[in-house]
Amino acid sequence: MLLVLLPPASPAALTTTLRQLQGRLGAQIRVLRIDEATHPAVVRSFGTPALPACVLLRQGVELWRHQGLPDDAGTLGTLLEALR
After folding, report:
1. Domain count, the chain
2. Which residues, in sequence order, are CB contacts of 9 under 8 Å at separation 6+?
3. What is the CATH number of the domain that holds 62?
4. Domain membership of residue 60 as a residue range
5. Which one of 37, 44, 80, 81 is at 20 to 30 Å from 62 when CA atoms are compared?
6. Which strand (E) or helix (H) includes residue 77?
C-alpha cells in the first residue's frame, strides 16, 4: 500500500494525479490518500518534514519513503523495486 500524505489545502488537480499514479502502478500497489486536515494524527505519526510525502507499506512495515509525489519514471522504478 502506498500512503500519500497530503497537506490540508491540496489542489483539486491532485486527485487526477493520484488516479494516474494508481493507473501506472496497477494492481501491485494500492494508492491511499491521507489528508492532514482529516487525519492529522496519522500524518504526524510518519514524521515527514514536508508534505506531500509517500510511504510504501507492506503488512505495516515501511519499505520506502519519498518526499513529494513519485511522478517520474526513475522514482516509480525505485518504488517498484522496493517491493521485491
Report:
1. 1
2. 37
3. 3.40.30.10
4. 2-82
5. 37
6. helix 73-82
